[in-house]
Amino acid sequence: MGMKGPGEFFGELGVLDRAPRAATVLALSDCSLIELDEQTLNDILARHPSVSRAIMRGITRSVRDTDRITIAELQLKNNELARTLDDLRAAQAELLRRERLKRDLEIAAQVHKNILPTSFPQVPGFEFAALARPAREIGGDLYDIVDMGQNEIGIVMADASGKSVQAAIYMAVVRALFLSETNANLSPSETAHRIHNLLLKVSTTNDMFVTAFYATLNYVTRKMRYVRGGHDRPVYYHAATGEVSLLNPPGRFLGLLPNLIIQEECLTFQTGDMLVCYSDGVTDATRRGDGEMYGLDKLIEMVKREGHRSASEVVKIIVSDVDHFRNGEEQPDDLTLLVTKAV
């Protein structure tokens, strides 16, 4: 776009190179225009060289203006291309990151699946049921029932810190240690100390640890000795009264700080009694909309109301209630349950 005033001209290139060009001209006030054809213009140029020079200056100015506009447009497009290239590189980096994350999650899911038991020992007078449902970012939940011989079994519920492959591999190490260290001749406290010290030796980082509930149960006498290393407090259902209590012996997580603090306690199962171990994926489940957490009180209420049912029924009912409570909200953490019932 340009502005022309009195005595100026336009369209000269269309006459000189015999290639008419389309242009829109808007008059801001009344004016008179003189149209020159090619022959008339040539006659004027021949008689008046000064007109030729004026036209050449105009053409030169027009070309320079066009060059400046072209250069500015090219610079703008260059900048846009540079930004597009940066965006493309960022998108490519994000795609690679997501691909790595997806692969990590696949590996973690496989490791997590492989460390969980596919069946439990068959022991007289007790039934067991469990469920482990990984979240999108797989953590390090673990449960197990270990046959230790001499009429005793080991009950394990643990949760490793962190997410994805690191947590899954760490938990695989923890399970291997529990399998190797669970022994009918060792108390739960002694076993916890041994595993804690071994984790301190094998750990290559200073930020991994594991919370755990570990118990030994003599299924003949029905006496259970147990420790709680910083794990969520198990819920115990008393069939005779229909009441519940929390198993809450003092104890600190394993594998990070020296001088493990842990205290052993014991109880005796009566027929119908039930032990519900769980991970924080149960109590920390949040509801879509207001962000309210499921919480321990709701879990206690469910165990108290449904404790008369079988172990497998209780697992299904609790999971269903948690899912209904979430109302479609994403599962924030692995959801894991292990139920032991005296029958």
What descriptors fit this protein?
single chain, 343 residues, alpha+beta, Phosphatase 2c, domain 1, 2 domains, five-stranded antiparallel sheet, 8 helices
Plain-language structure description:
It contains eight helices and ten strands. The model has no long low-confidence stretch (mean pLDDT 86). Strand 2 and strand 3 form a beta hairpin. It has 343 residues and is α+β, with helices and mostly antiparallel strands. It folds into two domains: 37-115; 117-342, Phosphatase 2c, domain 1 (4-Layer Sandwich), CATH 3.60.40.10. The protein is rod-shaped, with a radius of gyration of 40 Å.
Brief overview:
By secondary structure, this protein is an alpha+beta fold.
Secondary structure: elements and pairs:
Blueprint (H helix, E strand, L loop, with lengths): L11 H5 L21 H10 L1 H67 L10 E8 L6 E10 L2 E9 L3 H18 L6 H15 L7 E9 L4 E7 L5 E4 L4 E4 L18 E4 L5 E5 L1 H4 L11 H12 L4 H16 L8 E8 L1
Antiparallel strand pairs: 1-10, 2-3, 3-4, 4-5, 5-8, 6-7, 6-9, 9-10
CATH superfamily of the largest domain: PPM-type phosphatase domain
Beta content comes to 15-25%
Radius of gyration: 40 Å
Q: Kindly state the mean pLDDT as a whole number?
A: 86
Helix content: 40-55%
CATH class category label of the largest domain? Alpha Beta
Q: Count the beta strands.
A: 10
